[in-house]
Amino acid sequence: MILKFGYFDNKRKEYVITRPDTPTPWINYLSNSEYCAMISNTGGGFSFHIDPKDRRILRYRYNNLPYDRPGRYIYIRHGDSGKIWSPSWQPVLIKLNSYECRHGLGYTIIKSENSGISVELTYFVPLSDNLEIWKAHIRNTSSSTQEIQVYSYAEFCLWRAEADQNDLQYIQNVAFTEFDDNVIYYSLYDRHPGYVFFSTNGDIDSYDCDREEFIGPYRDESNPIRVENGKCSNSIAIGGNPIAATCAEITLNPQEEKTIIFVLGVIPHKTDANTLIEKYTNENNVESEFKRLKEFWNDYLDKFQVNTPDEDFNTIVNIWNPYQCRITFDWSRYVSFYETGIGRGMGFRDSSQDTLGVNYALPQRVRQRLLDLAKNQFEDGHVYHIYFPLTGKGAFPDYINPARPYFSDDHLWMIIAVYDYILETGDLKILNEEISFVDSDGVQPLYSHLKQAIDFTMNHIGDHGLPLIGTADWNDTLNLPGPNNASESLWVILLLRFALLGIIELSEELGYNKDADMFIKLADKIKEHVNATAWDGKWYIRAYTDSGHIIGSSKSDKGKIFLNPQSWAIISRIAPNNKAITALDSVKELLDTQYGVMLLTPPYDGYQHDLGGISTFPPSLKENNAIFCHTNPWLIIAECMVGRGDEAFNYYKKISPTSKNEIADIHRTEPYVFSQMITGKYHSKFGAAKNSWLTGTAAWVMRSVHQGILGIQPSLHGLHIDPCIPKEWDGFTVIRHFREAIYEISVENPNHVSKGIKEIRLNGKLLKGNLVPVLTEGTSNVVTVILG
Ligand code: GLC
User: Fold this and answer.
1) Can you name the residues that pair with 28 across neighbouring β-strands?
2) Is the distance from the beta carbon of residue 349 to the nearest atom of ligand 1 less than 6 Å?
């Protein structure tokens, strides 16, 4: 049994993979938010420009055998013996003398050695140009002169990723390549997408642009005929499968080294290539761009840095969680090694939640995102479920229920995201931005859009006084279909109440007193109603089916208890303390496992008409009783709200990537990021994670840590400080940038409590209460907190 495949190198802010045969491809995103290159620890992956659906540059064969192909490959062929290998292990799969892959922030370095040649490959996307760099540093480590051929290989996608897979008779007749002055160009015959270019600072002694010519019949990337032969055939692809394969012959004396830089990028016009190639095939320029990239990420991370007694916690909070938040903000749930970048687009609810993980670091981009999202609202208040980044146009997925064509939660997330952005930035003006609706020409201020969202929910209430579930709520698979279109979601009313708490504060701040009164009344009514009708004895119920049966009750056979109503009854401040504690204890007793907390239990066991999607999954997979990681930070927040710091931290540790590093062969996906789900306990692969990277877990874990455990909570007029930590901690420090000032916060815990503030001082002066005000731009301030 192999448990570990790597370790965290915090000094370099890298995760180091020490063997190539990881249980799944362990990947990284190299991206400047427009050009995106995904790369695995063995060089697999593909690239796209802005939209993975319609501007796909490199091809990837999802769920394929052989595994994780193609990629950005280098082949080394030894002239004397004809031996062939790849520094990234794939695709040749020859055992290497040494191997190491370092995934850093925005770059990946793969380094290996074989047969007296060592190669260090650095892959990255520069900050401000739409291209990727592969830098190969090659050294002769032997004592004799070596003559080698260095090949590069990339397989182009025929732009529209969907047609590339399903319209071959057409798409394979529209592309062409050219080889011109050491550059391979690729475009479609009508040139509408512009051009892709591939070039190098090395000499191209021979090249191939036609995949079949390079690979040869009945072969694959592991044994291309042209690599075997030691020379490419100088083929051009007109139609067919275009690639960029180049071959350079080099001679290296003992210990001699050479750097070959490859550049692959996208340009509107062919004539744009030369300047970029000139710039990026120059080693000094590549060095300085790489440095700039590192500085960029350091600046990004500097905005929130923590130091606690728990090193693993610091690693994730300071480096990997903010990194993942940025990636999910950029690509929502659209494109990963599990999301093909074809169908889903950017999720409305997903993107709204993703803003929570970056608004402290990227306020301008979040502002724009919020306005873009709001444009996807219909006049009655509901919203499109997804939108496409190239056009901004919204859509519903194929499985939308035509009888109730909306998701009951989507529009409400907009309120939560806008509110959170305003707390972070103080930018109340965003509420005045005039924004159109999907189905009318008129515009209205964002504030009205938020009100419309509330109206929509209130105009779609069912027989039990709860929101109709529509196609589903946050739980995409809890469809609860039926002829009456009458199923209701308890959870959505909790979300509504949480959204109301936000808009109440905003309307009060703006002096919209009538609105504030109306929202307060509604919020009170909801609280009363939920506690009067939805408490099952030891927890809150989840929903009503179309025929009025309760989901999530002690009387249910399966699905007796769901996690989300318990955490959200607390987050929405509906649960009184006794109910909150009882519900949390029930969660602990019934849903907690060694790998994280399950979404519900017991699992459904077979398809049920009245449930729909959720019952299409076998027990313990996906929404049917898996540990759906996204929901765990909600529980952490709830535990913090009731003051149980040990429980909160314990739940955090269970899903934290660092804890998965020690059980990597069970967990399977990358131990430096969160995955969407971990298989639940009624499955033989209990503990196996799936669907890494793009998950709302990232933003919510950040929030649960920043605002729950560390208790640093942005508010309209400053930072509230209210930590809820493990009792054994002596304290912690945080450096936090907030509204252009720096807060150096140090928290001491002399009495070893979890929560409760004895004293706060700002720059030495005692404060009343626990609100540290907004401070002067550009200042650095010392906040000392004593718990007790
Ligand atoms: C996936 C979806 C998200 C949904 C969740 C639960 O993560 O991206 O939108 O809320 O599943 O169904």
Assistant:
1) 39
2) yes
DSSP-assigned states of every residue in 542-594: -EE-TTS-EES-TT-SS--EEHHHHHHHHHTT-S-HHHHHHHHHHHHHHTEET
Q: What is the pLDDT of residue 163?
A: 95
Rounded to an integer, what distance in angstroms lies between the CA atom of residue 172 and that of residue 513?
63
**Using a 6 Å cutoff on CB, does residue 697 contact ligand 1?**
no
Tell me whether residue 487 is exposed, middle or buried, using C-beta atoms within 10 angstroms of its C-beta: 0 to 12, 13 to 18, 19 or more.
Answer: buried
Q: Which residue's CA is the nearest one to ligand 1's atom 6? A: 475
- Total Cβ atoms within 10 A of residue 729: 22
Q: What is the mean pLDDT of residues 418-443?
A: 97
Ligand 1, closest atom to CA 630?
7
Query: For the chain, give me the number of helices (H) and strands (E)?
Result: 21, 43
Amino acid identity for residue 342 in this structure: I
Q: H/E element holding 495?
A: helix 490-509
Sign of dihedral through CA atoms 441, 447, 451, 454?
A: positive
Q: How far is the CA of 389 from the centre of ligand 1 (A)?
A: 19
- Please answer whether residues 647 and 639 qualify as being in contact, where contact means their C-beta atoms are separated by less than 8 angstroms: yes
Cα-only R_g, the chain: 27
Does ligand 1 come within 6 angstroms of the Cβ of 474?
Answer: yes
Query: What does the alpha-carbon distance between residue 674 and residue 346 come to, in Å, rounded to a whole number?
Result: 19
Whether residue 1 is predicted with pLDDT greater than 80 in this model: the reply is no
Determine whether 476 is an active site residue.
yes
Q: Find, among 186, 191, 181, 182, the residue nearest to 211 by Cα.
A: 186
User: CA–CA separation, 470 vs 473, rounded Å?
Assistant: 7
DSSP letter string, 702-752: HHIIIIIIS-EEEETTEEEE--B--TT--EEEEEEEETTEEEEEEEE-TT-
Q: Is the CB of 336 under 6 A from ligand 1?
A: no
- Cβ–ligand 1 distance for 476 under 6 Å, the answer yes
Q: What is the pLDDT of residues 72-131, one digit of tens each?
A: 999 999 999 999 999 999 999 999 999 999 999 999 999 999 999 999 999 999 999 999
The best mutation among 476, 598, 691 to test binding of ligand 1, ranked by most ligand atoms within 8 Å of the C-beta, falls on 476
Q: Which of 68, 354, 476, 536 is catalytic?
A: 476
Q: Which atom of ligand 1 is nearest to the CA of 350?
A: 9
Residue 503 scores a pLDDT above 80: yes
Ligand 1 atom nearest to 333, measured from its CA: 8
Query: Which residue's structure tokens are 């739940």?
Result: 651
- Out of 474, 477, 614, give the residue to mutate to test ligand 1, the one with the largest number of ligand atoms within 8 Å of its CB: 474
Question: Could you tell me the pTM of the whole model?
Answer: 0.98
Question: 74: which 2 tokens?
Answer: 């280098």
Any atom of ligand 1 within 6 Å of the Cβ of 676: yes
Whole-angstrom Cα distance, residue 300 to residue 248? Answer: 39
For residue 278, what are the contacts with CB-CB under 8 A and spacing of at least 6? Answer: none
Rounded Cα distance, 226 and 234, in Å = 10
353 in contact with ligand 1, CB cutoff 6 A? no
Secondary structure (DSSP) of 293-339: HHHHHHHHHHTEEEE-S-HHHHHIIIIIHHHHHHHHHHHTTTBSSSS
Q: Which residue type sits at 248?
A: A
Give the nearest ligand 1 atom to 623 CA.
12
Nearest CA to ligand 1 atom 10: 474
CA distance 86 to 92: 6
pLDDT band with cut points at 50, 70 and 90 for residue 441: confident
- Spatial distance between the Cα atoms of 296 and 648, rounded to a whole number of angstroms: 32
Burial of 283 (0-12, 13-18, 19+ CB in 10 A): middle
Atom from ligand 1 closest to the CA of residue 696:
7
Q: What pLDDT sits at residue 344?
A: 83
Would you say residue 759 has pLDDT above 80? yes
Distance CA 636, CA 648 (A): 5
